[in-house]
Amino acid sequence: MGRLVVVTGGARSGKSTFAEMLAKDCKCDVVYIATSIPFDDEMKARIKKHIEQRPKNWKTVEAYKDIDKHLAKEKSDSVVFLLDCITIMITNIMLEASIDWDGASDNEIDYVEDSVKVQIEKVLKAVKEKDAIFILVTNEIGMGIVPENKLSRIFRDIAGRINQILASAADEVYLCVSGIPVKIK
C-alpha cells in the first residue's frame, strides 16, 4: 500500500516548491504528473518556470485524467509520484464539458463533479495498489469571499469537496502559508 501526502495552500503559497522538496528528499525516482494544458502564453510561461526548477532526471507525464493508466506503467518500487495539481485537473475536466455554466442545472453540475470524482477514485485506488509515495498538490480556494459568477462558485464547491476526499484518504496533509508548510494531518 502506498503513502499519500496532500499539499494544499493558496496561490503562490509555496505548495509546489514544498511538494518538490518532499519528492527530492525521498531519494528515489520521481514521476512528475503535470495536469496543465498550455492554452495561452501565461500558462506556457508558468509551465516553463516549473520545468526549469525541477531536476532534469525527473520523468514528466502530462495528463489530467486517466492518471491511473500512467501510474500503472511505472514498474519501479522506489518511486515518488508527484501530481501538480488537482485543481488544474478539476478545471480541465470542467471545461471539457459542453455546459453553459451560467445556466447549468444541478444535474449537469452533479455529472461533472461525478466525472471528477471518478478520476480521483482512480488515483486513490492506484495509491492503495502501488507501494509508492504519492504527493498531490491542490489549491485551498474556499477561504476567500464567495465568487461573483456561477462557474467560479461551482469550481470552488467541487474543489472543496474533492480536497476533503483527498485529505480524508491522506496519510499526511500540509498547508502552505507564505512559503511555510504546516503539517495539519
Q: What is the name of the CATH topology?
A: Rossmann fold
Described by the principal axes of the CA atoms, the overall outline is globular
Q: Can you count the helices?
A: 6
Poorly predicted segments:
none
Query: Order of strands in the sheet with the most strands?
Result: 3-2-4-5-1-6-7
Distance between the termini: 19 Å
Average of per-residue pLDDT values: 91
Radius of gyration: 16 Å
Largest sheet: 7 strands, mixed
Q: CATH homologous superfamily name?
A: P-loop containing nucleotide triphosphate hydrolases
Q: What series of H and E elements makes up the topology?
A: EHEHEHEHHEHEE
Would you report the number of β strands? 7
Strand content: 15-25%
Domain module tally: 1
> Any guess at the CATH architecture?
3-Layer(aba) Sandwich
CATH class: Alpha Beta
Structural class: alpha/beta
What is the helix content? 40-55%
Describe, in plain words, how this protein is organized in 3D.
- The protein has 185 residues and is α/β, with parallel strands linked by helices.
- It has a single domain (3-183), classed as P-loop containing nucleotide triphosphate hydrolases (Rossmann fold, 3-Layer(aba) Sandwich), CATH 3.40.50.300.
- It contains six helices and seven strands, in the order βαβαβαβααβαββ.
- The chain has helices spanning 15-25, 41-53, 67-73, 86-96, 106-129, 150-169; strands at residues 3-9, 29-34, 59-62, 79-84, 133-139, 172-177, 180-183.
- It is globular and about 50 Å long.
- The mean pLDDT is 91.
Topology:
Elements: E1 3-9, H1 15-25, E2 29-34, H2 41-53, E3 59-62, H3 67-73, E4 79-84, H4 86-96, H5 106-129, E5 133-139, H6 150-169, E6 172-177, E7 180-183
